[in-house]
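Quick start: read one record
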Amino acid sequence: MSHKISEYFANDPPSFFDELANKPKGKDLPPEGGSSSASNTSTAASMMSNTFTGFFQPPEYVETPEAGEDSVKVSDDVRNLWELPRENEPPGKLIMPGIHLQNDLVDPISVAVTQHLGEAELSYRKILRVDDVTQDERGLRTLIHAGCYRTAVNLTGRLLTIYGQGYGRSGQPAKHSPHSLQLWFTRLALLAKLGEFELLNAEAEPFGQLTSPDVFYDFYPEMYNGKSGSIACFSFRLLLAELPIYLGKPHVALDRLSELHVTTREIKEHYTNLRNNTADEFWQRRCERVLHSIINCGLMMKKFSMIDDIMEGTLLKRSSLSKEDRRSLYSAWGRIYLQIGDIFGAEQKIAVSRRLREINSSPDLRDLVDKGLIAVAKNDFPEAYVIFQKALHLDTGNTMILNNMGVCLLYAGKLKDAINLYERAINLNPQKSLNESLLVNLSTLYELESNNSKAKKYNLLRLINRYKPDLNISIEICLKLQTIN
């Protein structure tokens, strides 16, 4: 499995910086949210909470992630370098993880369809099951690519059982390898995406912050021929540091992320002193990934002065920052000011971003989305709609833009037009447009429209049954349906 699975994190706390990480070449505004797409579960996702109230989801400020490979290629020695447990410290407790579920995760869409529509409708549900793929990494990749995240979690359970780390093995001695730790990282990342936070917390607990000696190659000299460094990938360390965010404890996450940043920066400075420019740049990017997560914590904790300090004093200070990355940062900074409610400050930052665009070039996706969000902040919904419509011409089918257009129509008093927009988007591309935020909004619009909303919601459930392997929030929340006892 790739170490880069930021695309799995649809339930991450809202992030304004993921578009800078793993940027796909040739795309102007890479949709990245790996840490975050517009959150359905966190009130921090609402940048306009004073304007958009109730259960209707606010405009989305973060695009959906699209992962890419590191553009900086380094050796394993550089990639795996990490701070070993110090000799004068007592030996750390060894990591002895285990699966906490005796049975597979159930498919909640199947359960909801059976409850509300009956067994006959369930026959139309065609998704990959664990036994439909090879029982290895290739099968895991196939499931993830198909969006069958719960099935992928179930397959990781089978594969980890082979390593002696299955159900009931928590607290039992275990040996770790790059493959076993990668399986754990993938499993925990998927649990985060699916919102299975209680299970995620229980299964992540034995790993701590990956400081135990048995997650280093040095602990197994006979197995790895003297290889040194961390067996666990950096993204695993970042996930564990961010974990308290999912549990509503951003202050704990901030402490962990700050400690992670200190270590990352020390390794970066080590390569600076060695004048190894490639390794220096590689670790610089890791430092920035941690800072992006720290800023997300800052947003949740309303530490706005800290955010300004990081943006101005660190992220924008790097001399080697490309013009396009600088432009992205100013755009992200402007959107942060919108969340704070400082429209003037947002306009200033976004104006800097706009000036960094290529001379004589037409407004691109980033420009139009920024401009549309400012219009929303000013409650000028008709103007915002026109701007988002132009953006949609540049990226047809972009659900974030479509969702924002629907919000604008609703607040401009055009309820039926908003419904028609969402329904047309779903009919044109059901796989993509059956997006959690869009579904929540459309279900809300149905309730506003008439008392006969249940039948229309059932039609949405039929579409979900046929086109969506998984959702990141429950059907009851997504479609606002009552559970049948």
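Residues 277-301 form the longest helix (25 residues).
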